[in-house]
Specification:
The chain is α/β, with parallel strands linked by helices. It contains 10 helices and 12 strands.
Length: about 300
Amino acid sequence: MKRSDFLKTMALAGTAVATGGIGGLNVFAQENKTTGDCDLVAVMGGEPDAMFKKAIAEFGGMGKYVKKGQKVVIKPNIGWDKTPEMAADTHPLLVKEMVVQSLAAGAAEVIVFDHTCDDWRNCYKNSGIEEAVNSAGGKMVPADLETYYREVSLPEGKSLKTTKVHQAILDCDVWFNVPVLKVHSGTRMTISLKNYMGIVWDRRFFHNTDLQQCIADSCSLIKRPALNVVDAYRVMKSNGPRGKSEADAVLTKALFASPDIVAVDTASVKFFEKAAGVEMSLAQVSHIEKAAELKLGQMDLDKLNIRRIQV
């Protein structure tokens, strides 16, 4: 699939959703590839849980990643004390569905956490994620104390050589990176790569050193997520990362998933620019290119087998 065609597809779909509806698969510029393993799945037009069901089916089901008796971590963005309508945090329906499917695949335990910016208790509650996780049989854990973190080495890092990572990530068998797609005042966009800042302790070092490089460096952690699942059901187009009102968010009803963190963020930025109507280039989100330079993934969408699905 050509990158230009993919972007045209995303633009058409995003615009259609934002203006009140989405047509059939004729919005896509090319037919889906039906052979070979898919590298990235783009789903549009449904609720967050329904879109994840479609996406994970394309990858072979949750059982491809979660085995019986395993300890699973789901890492959403829960950084802000905001309701789902604000699109500051990952949508609770998506997180809930991922907990449900992980347990159905045989997980012994599913843990959900984030190193929040606002008070973690309020973030967990008012985002709707705590209730969603508890009702699905998962477990929320805090991340507000340094004792929850252990130091790890990042030998591939350029600016960040060591950092303290939350024990839930270090002790699990498999984890999923589940950000929300939105603008950010410091890094222009926050998606999958930036979501790693919610698993580390000393974020001040990132800001005081080289923020974009440190984000890329943190993602060189040897324990990579099985999948990066980008919640683009509502995207925050202005006043990110916190948002000021519901007017800062636009309903786009999309979801992107890939084991390739660079690829999924590349696709997400391009989608955001068209669907949210906000000028945003990959050059502005420089941690994506820096992560590609560390060989953490592929920015060239032409080289990917992309599946596009409309719910």
